[in-house]
Amino acid sequence: MSRIPEDTISHGLPGEPPLPAPRTRREARERYRGSERRQARGLPSTSTGARSLRQAAKPGASLGAGYLGLGAAVLTAIEAVAGIAFFIARWHGYVDPWLPAIAWGLYVVAAIGVGLSVLTYGERLTGPAFVLICVVLACVVTLDFVGIWPQHDIVHTATASMAAGFALLPIATLRPAREVAAAITVLGLAFVAMSFASTPITRDSLPGIVSLLSLVVVPPSIALYVVQRFRQLVQRELDRVLVQSNVQAPQFAVGMLASDELARLDLAAEKLLDAVANGTDPLPLSDASASVAASLATELRLHLIEGRRETWLYHAITESDNLGRAVSVADPASLAGHLSPAQRDGLLQALWQMVGDGRTTQPGSPVVSVTLGPVGTDGHPVTDDTMDVPIIIESHGVARRSLGPMAWSALARVGSYSETVRDGTLHIVAHCVVDRHPTM
C-alpha cells in the first residue's frame, strides 16, 4: 500500500491568512485537482519538479521539435508559392476564378497571422487557436471546392484546398498527435467525397485522384510520425541521462522525488519554527500546530528508514519512465550499493539494451527481472575484503540473437557471466566481485 504524503504546506499554520474561497465551481475544481496532483507526486507547487511538470504539460513545440516545425513551415511556404503560381497560370481556365482567389487570400492572411503569433508569443498553440485555424482551413477548402466545381476535374484545378494539407505540417509540432490526426482524417474524407461527387471516375482519372489524395494526406501524416518518433527519442535519451546520474550515487541515498519532498518538509518545518520564534504561535503549541509538527516528524522518520534500504539501483529503476515499466528488481540485502561505478554503468547499459523501447508483451508484466544475491552461493565464498554478488538477469521478451555486442561488453564490465535459454527466456548469471566496505 503506497503512502501518500500529507501536503503540510497547503494546510498552513495558525496566524497565516487563509486562502480565499473559490469564486466559481471551475476554480474550486481546479484547486482540488491541483492539490491531488501534488499529493500524488509528493511535490509542492513551488518546487522545481512541479514547475518542470507544468512546463512539460503546456501545449507547444518542446524538446527541440520547434526546429522540425521551422523546416515544415518552409516546405509549406514552398508548396503555397508553387500552388499560387499554378493557379495564376491557369487563371483563364476557371469558370469562376474569384472564389479560389479568395481562398488563397484567406490562406495567406491566416499564414501571416500564425507566423506573427509564433514570433510574438513563442512556439505555443492553444486549443482555441488550433480550432480557429481549422475553421479557416475549412473555409479555404470550401471556397476552393465551390470555385472548381464547374470544371468537374479536381485533379487539375484544386490548388488552395491542396495547400491546406501542407498547412498541417508545422501544426504537427505544436499540438497533440490525436488532434492533428483528426484534422488529417477530416481533410482526406472531404477530398474523397469531392472527388467522387465532382470528377467522373474513369481508368484515366483514377490515378490522378489517388495521387492528389496522397499529396493531401501523406505529407502531414509523415510529419506527424516523424515528430512523434523524434519526441520519443529525445525523451528516452533524457531519461537515460537521468538514470545514468545514479552511477555516482552513494550506497544508500534518497531519490529525486524524495529530495523534492524533503525540501517540502524542510520548508514546512522552517515555517513552523519561524511561527514559534516570532510569537505567532507561542509555546505550548496549539492543537493544529502540534498536529503539523507530528506529521513532519513522522515523515522525516520514514524518509530516514527508507534512506537506509533503497540503493541507487532502486532509484534508477523507479525514477525512469522506460526502465520502471519493463524492469523488476529483487535486492533484499541491498547488495547493489556495493557495486563500483564501472560495474553500475555496465549493469545499466545492459538493462537498456535488453529493454529496448520499454514495450512489454503483456501490460503490467516486466520484460527484464534482476535478482541480486544471496552472497556466498554456488561455491563463491565471502572473503574478508571482497565478496561475490551473483546477479541473475532474466529477459522474457528479448531473444539472445537480438542483443548486440554493446550489451555483452556491458555485462563483461559487471563481471564474469554465463547465459542460457530456457523455454524462450534468456537467463544470465553474472558474478560481480565487490568490496565488502565500499567507499561510496
Entry keywords:
16 helices; 5 strands; about 450 residues; alpha+beta
How would you concisely characterize the structure shown here?
The chain is of the alpha+beta class. It has helices at residues 8-11, 25-41, 48-57, 65-89, 98-121, 127-148, 154-157, 160-171, 177-198, 206-244, 256-277, 287-307, 312-318, 323-326, 341-355, 405-414; strands at 327-330, 368-372, 386-395, 416-422, 425-435.
Fold and architecture overview:
Helix content is about 60%, strand content about 10%. The chain is of the alpha+beta class. It has a five-stranded mixed beta sheet with strand order 1-2-3-5-4. A hairpin with a 2-residue loop joins β4 (about 415-420) and β5. α6 runs antiparallel to α8 (about 160-170).
Secondary structure elements and pairings:
Blueprint: H1 8-11, H2 25-41, H3 48-57, H4 65-89, H5 98-121, H6 127-148, H7 154-157, H8 160-171, H9 177-198, H10 206-244, H11 256-277, H12 287-307, H13 312-318, H14 323-326, E1 327-330, H15 341-355, E2 368-372, E3 386-395, H16 405-414, E4 416-422, E5 425-435
Radius of gyration: 30 Å
Based on secondary structure, the structural category is alpha+beta
Task: Name the helicity range.
Answer: 55-70%
Ranges where pLDDT stays below 50 over 5 or more residues in a row are 1-18, 21-26, 35-59
Mean pLDDT: 76
Strand content bin: 5-15%
Strand order, largest beta sheet: 1-2-3-5-4
Q: Quick one: overall form?
A: elongated
Total beta-strand segments: 5
What's the end-to-end separation, in Å?
31 Å
Total helical elements: 16
SSE ordering: HHHHHHHHHHHHHHEHEEHEE
Could you give a short account of the major beta sheet? 5 strands, mixed
